[in-house]
Amino acid sequence: MCKFQQPQIPANVTADERRAIYFDALYSLDLSDKVEKYNDLTYLSWANAWAEFKRCYPSATYRIIKNPETNLPYFADPCIGIMVYTEVEVEGITHEMWLPVMNASNKAMKLEAYTYSVYDKFKKQHVEKTVEAATMFDINKTIMRCLVKNLAMFGLGLYIYAGEDVPENDSTDTQQTDSPKKTIRRAKTISQAQQATDKYAGIKAALKACPDQQSLMNLYQQHKNEVDGNSEIKALFTERKLQLQKAA
């Protein structure tokens, strides 16, 4: 697994540019050896997710939102099920996330067991299935999955929710356009207040801050997939390399 490395942040970047740099750094982390597959879904351990996130943002905090009426960490509706909520706060920015309590078949669980009917194509008839009542174990497990999903709003493991197994190399994308797929996803995911004016503002700012060839190489290694898969970004690195050579 590629562990998070603190990106170099120049002093003159805006707050949005700084967030964009950190978002890309978190998004580019390959967490494939820390995930598990179950029922065709991919799960990332909350402990590994939180460890990597704290390496990026040591002051980050999270909160499990409790029902003010019961002081319990879930909200239950007898008709539609149980929902949990978390919040993650980083440097004045807070993202909220929610997740329903579900069973192994991804059916919503409730405080009491219930049945539902599905069509069995082999028996060629409708059969009845049961969803057991939720337990505190189910609720606790959902809370921690909700926290991992919450961290993805800041970039960590977001590609998992986009249906990818690893951060994708844009050169393999047959639908590639002038805007790399990763940047498109980021633009759709980050709140409007966090978006940089220039789609490459974060990486441009980091390039300008590189004082020598070694720093440039470190930045390249951190964004290798993105650089190798996009000619525009690669040209920016080449330009900065030439500038540093002239200045030496």
From TrEMBL:
Q: Which InterPro entries does the record match to this protein?
A: DSRM_SSAP (IPR009425)
What are the residue boundaries of the SSAP RNA binding domain, all occurrences included? 22-197
Spell out the Pfam families in the cross-references.
Answer: SSAP_Sak
Q: What is this protein called?
A: SSAP RNA binding domain-containing protein
Organism encoding this protein? Phocaeicola salanitronis (strain DSM 18170 / JCM 13657 / CCUG 60908 / BL78)
